Amino acid sequence: MEADYGYMRDTQQYSAPTGLAGVQADMHEFSASYVYRFTPGRVKPFATAGVGGIVFDPVIGNGALLSQPATQTRGAFVYSAGADIAITSHLSFRAQYRGLVYKAPDFDEGVGSASAMNFSEPAGGLVWRF
Fold it and tell me: Where are the alpha helices (DSSP H) in the chain?
């Protein structure tokens, strides 16, 4: 098992009667996943699957479609694949591809659709094993 937190700023694009518009929001991602490791050794390929949540916190005054967009939370399915390269017995460098599948936010204003989104992100970093 692993637990993750991620933060980024994203702009959700919407089609409006006056043309395209966007809502810029901070995204806070919390997730827990099962990790399957393929082989022991210095290079350890892996795959993960799990669940989480994403908090969309709109940036006020960003010239967005909405005057006062509401903060919104969405559940998500999380998956990834990559490899850990051991530096020490407890520390590794990780390179991976992560994906999150969730319902598009509408910021409680009825914009957008009820469609599923697939957010893809390449990632890299350090991993500490207990």
Answer: none
**What does the block give as tokens for 119?**
């957010």
Q: Is CATH 1.20.1050 the right assignment for the domain spanning 2-128? A: no
Length of the chain (residues):
130
pTM of the prediction? 0.78
Exposure string for 49-82, b = 16+ CB within 10 A, e = fewer: ebebebbbebeeeeebbbeebeebebebbbebeb
Tell me if 71 sits within 8 A of 60, measured CB to CB: no
**Residue written as token pair 């936010």:** 105
The domain segmentation of the chain, as residue ranges, is 2-128
Query: The tokens of 110 are what?
Result: 């009825």
Nearest one of 56, 4, 58 to 30, comparing CA atoms? 4
pLDDT of 104: 85
Model pLDDT for residues 7-50, shown as the tens digit of each residue: 998 887 766 666 666 778 899 999 999 999 988 889 999 999 99
